Amino acid sequence: MSTTPPTLALFGATGGxxxxxxxxxxxSSHHTISALARTPSKLTSQLLAQGIPQSTLSSRLLITPGxxxxxxxxxxxxxxxxxxxxNTVAPIIVSGLGGTPVFQWSVREPVAxxxxxxxxxxxxxxxxxxxxxxxxxxxxxxxxxxxxxISTTGISKPRGPEDVPWLFRxxxxxxxxxxxxxxxxxxxxxxxxxxxxxGKDGGVxxxxxxxxxxxxxxxxxxxxxxxxxxxREGREQEPAVGYTIRRADVGEWIFREVVEKKGEGxxxxxxxxxx
Length: 275
Prior knowledge:
Helices cover 32% and strands 18% of the residues.
């Protein structure tokens, strides 16, 4: 990628939702992207398979190899390879990080994660990286990045009403208790890092948009979709309750509403997405 500062920084870029978002961003003509990936070749292969030309990848995408729990790697991604204090960070940051489910012989917790604290660990590192880059000391909130992250339904209480349908509640509240604990802690960290009005409180984000999709289906292929016209949106206090949603539709929604529209109308919200 050229030395042009990125307009978007992505974490968890090979995941289905975030990968779909990245395809839409690269197909547009006005985004340069910095992405963190443990295996850059995997991300490149995914994008080439969806018709993104190598010339576009070379000119508008910088892939930083590394881990979302490495402070140095995260700072490098945020600044497109120049992690120095007071350097400009991407104005929009999106995280689609999540652990890999691991089934175990346990009645209480049948589903664990390969790393049961990956989301909260990465959340703490991201906030620390932005602080060390001086973002918390910027004089106004408008100078700080907008942040969106992918969470899950099933963790709305006690802040809001139940957002999972009856038939799925045993799966969510029993079967997925371990990954949901991690998601809940990460949510609290991100929401607590938003800047108050005026931006002088030490917060690192101008606004936070949390996305709580219902049960994710499908692949990272942007054609594996039903279309945004089929997507129902809800807010934390009035969630849209449904069973499933495709990863491609979640990625496109984030691209349209957060990247393109700068989160207008959604900042400070936990947005439920379902069919």
